[in-house]
Amino acid sequence: MRVARVEEFGGPEVLWVAEEPRPEPGENEVLIELHSAGVNRADVLTRSGRYHAAGQPPIVPGFEGSGVVREVGASVTGVSVGERVIAFGGRPGFYAEYVAVPEVHVVAMPDGLDDDSAAVPPVALLTAFYCLRRLARVEPGETVLVWAAASGVGDVAVQLAKAAGAQVIATVGSDEKVAWALENGADHGINHSSENVVDRVLELSGEAGVEVVLDTVGGARFGESLKVAGHGGRVVSLANVALEGSEIDTRDFYPKNVTIYGFQITNLMQRLGYDPREDLLELANLVVDGGLKVHVDRTFPLSEAAEAHRYLEERRNRGKIVLRPTEGG
Ligand SMILES: NC(=O)c1ccc[n+]([C@@H]2O[C@H](COP(=O)([O-])OP(=O)(O)OC[C@H]3O[C@@H](n4cnc5c(N)ncnc54)[C@H](OP(=O)(O)O)[C@@H]3O)[C@@H](O)[C@H]2O)c1
């Protein structure tokens, strides 16, 4: 089968299409023919050697995707051959024509969901959902600051926060993205490349600050997230996109009784036992019902995986990028 493989750590050019043996499903595994695979920041970090759990090359990146079950292991009872599924966390990785995943990493695709939309719930959708619903517990009437609101995670976070009845302040890196975020439902947009985010947020929220911050940028920006959090505020830190240190002043959060949450999806599943299937199904159904839009900005064939990474790294995406592993090219 064809895979897009990282031959050595480096820039997008180290992603090559290669032939690998199709994985044999183990006793509790299913083999999926992939139609779509989500492209995430973590894949870029994996490729460049900066992802904490990447291992050593050769690596086939990709944490999530959708397709059709072609084989099931002897002990699999809940998934059938021919079923359309959403899947996460498999081998060799989802930048491949086929992937083997444990049965418990599979959710049946609801009718009406297209392959591309079905490929992306396990990372961006689930991340935004878990951070806002389970950690920050956004309430109607609260104000939520979403950093990088045109990113895969930020896009969904804006929509989920609005659906929860919150006011949303969105930050993005260009005026074009500000317009996009407003169209996506944000109440206010801030260009974090040209405006002072702390001043602008406090102008919008009043000196009281905001109830919730979804910090999808981190690094130097994390200190700003703490400054704009109000009394009793919740700040969820889930990223460090620039891979840099943060300078914080503890006086920016303890006097306000602010809670800081950390979130990392893979560790939540692998180390803390979170089973995301129920939440994934809820999200997939929300997409089918029209309560959540998956914005697939661009799709790429497997042979253009390097191009997909360039697109993401140049910060051109608004929403998600998807690979089509079994599409020609
Ligand atoms: N902890 C977890 O489990 C988890 C899960 C999913 C994602 N994440 C993290 O959440 C973040 C968003 O993920 P995603 O896949 O949605 O990302 P994405 O679509 O690639 O978007 C990332 C965006 O961050 C903005 N950004 C701000 N400062 C940046 C900088 N210094 N360098 C590059 N980009 C910068 C850019 O938007 P602008 O042009 O608007 O500035 C960029 O498009 C990533 O850092 C990712 O690693 C974490």
Gist of the model:
The protein is an alpha/beta fold. The protein has ten helices and 15 strands.
Report the average pLDDT across residues: 97
Q: Could you tell me the number of beta strands?
A: 15
> What is the H level of CATH, i.e. the homologous superfamily of the largest domain?
Medium-chain alcohol dehydrogenases, catalytic domain
Number of domains: 2
Distance, first to last CA = 14 Å
Q: Strand fraction band?
A: 25-35%
Number of contiguous helices = 10
Low-confidence runs (pLDDT<50, min 5 residues)? none
Question: What general outline do the C-alpha atoms trace?
Answer: globular
Gyration radius, to the nearest Å?
Answer: 20 Å
Folded structure, characterized:
By secondary structure, this protein is of the alpha/beta class. The protein folds into 2 domains: 2-120 and 294-324, Quinone Oxidoreductase, Chain A, domain 1 (Alpha-Beta Complex), CATH 3.90.180; 124-266, Rossmann fold (3-Layer(aba) Sandwich), CATH 3.40.50. The protein has helices at 41-47, 115-118, 121-135, 152-163, 175-183, 197-205, 222-228, 265-270, 277-289, 305-313; strands spanning 2-6, 15-19, 29-39, 64-72, 84-88, 98-102, 106-108, 143-146, 167-172, 188-191, 210-215, 229-237, 259-262, 296-301, 320-324. The strands form 3 sheets. Strands 3, 4, 5, 6, 7, 14 and 15 form a 7-stranded mixed β-sheet that branches. Helix 3 packs across helix 4, helix 3 packs across helix 9 and helix 6 (197-205) packs parallel to helix 7. The longest helix is centred in the middle third of the chain and has 15 residues, at 121-135. NADP nicotinamide-adenine-dinucleotide phosphate binds next to helix 1, helix 3 and helix 4.
